[in-house]
Amino acid sequence: MSVLGWIAGGAAAAALSGVLAELAARAWLARSGRYYVWAPGARMRLEIDAAALPTLEPIAEHAINSDGERGGEAPPDEGTYRVLVVGGSAAECYYLDQKSQWPHVLQETLSAPENLARLGARRVHVGNIARSLVTCRHVDRILEKTLDRYSKLDAIVFLVGASDVVTWMEQGTPAKIDDSPIPASQVFAQHPEPPFTWDAQGAALRRIASSAKRRLLKPMDVRERAGKRLAEVRAMRAAATKLVTTPPDAAPMLDNFEKWFERCLVRARAKAPLVLAVRQPWLEKQFTPEEERWLWSYAVGRPYHQKCTTYFSHEAAWSLLRAVDRRADEVAQRLRIPQVDLMPLLPPDFVTWYDEQHHTPHGCRLVGEAVAWALVRASDPSRKGA
User: Fold this and answer.
1) Per-residue pLDDT, 383
2) Domain map of the chain by residue range?
3) Mean pLDDT throughout 287-306?
4) Among residues 320, 179, 154, which one has the least CA distance to residue 245?
5) Which residues on adjacent β-strands are paired with residue 276?
6) For residue 163, is pLDDT > 80?
7) In angstroms, rounded to a whole number, what is the distance separating the alpha carbons of residues 106 and 127?
8) What pTM does this model have?
9) What is the CATH number of domain 33-383?
């Protein structure tokens, strides 16, 4: 055989080996791959833009444990009171440091000796799998794919509702709510589902290699001037050409929220002996001109991705949030799920909030302590395994 023949044969063998390896990787993911809201081992350091977010800490670090939760590694099940937090951006706490997010405050508060004694535990672990702009339908998809991985959960805490309202407004308040299948990539940072491609970027082999790299090396993703885009989206709201003061009939959105919220609670209750519904709060007050500078929410359209010129007035948005809150209360009462109403506990000021929906470290301290108190009060140690 000529030299060229040997080269061609070698290239063909290498190509075939690559194809077989990729097919094997796809088969392995289909058989053994798992779903994670956040990629295990991922780490991120946000250097907060002080002009955009002056009330937040200058550095916000994220660390994802091997269960795909924002939080430390979970201790052994025995003697551990394990809590899972699910919800949207107010629970994700994206711009807040790991130790300032309210799920960490919850863990810290529950770990006080007197609380451990009441929980019948030696230690507490709180994992946070909340993700921005997930409606209850998305949360149900998350729970469907992740709960089976946990050998033990003592409590599942929900903070949901605002994303259902915001998403409906962004979509132009449609009379029919979208119920098309949710792509895995929309809610999971790491998952085994297609699509795959034959280039390096979309190959199953790359997914597996990236996952192994994160778990072993835990590289740090550094993002400078995090939050600077907020200045632009705030200016967009200030320049709105149309203000919707009376929203259309919200029954489709409310019925959809009720359906999926109930499904989430039922699914969670089948896994954990305690499910807690934390009613989603919002900042409601008469804003001064200075405070108006910090507001950006309730657009028709997605302000982080497109130019928006139509917004809902705050009064109109508050009416929708109140309606969702009433539905959440009705569902929780019907299912006998304990609740926490945060609205009376959170001062309507910019010490507690940094915009209409999200909390400062001080606000997170108040939220975490309130949720901890509710869990301790609602916990029944006789229902938990040792």
Assistant:
1) 44
2) 33-383
3) 95
4) 320
5) 157
6) yes
7) 10
8) 0.94
9) 3.40.50.1110
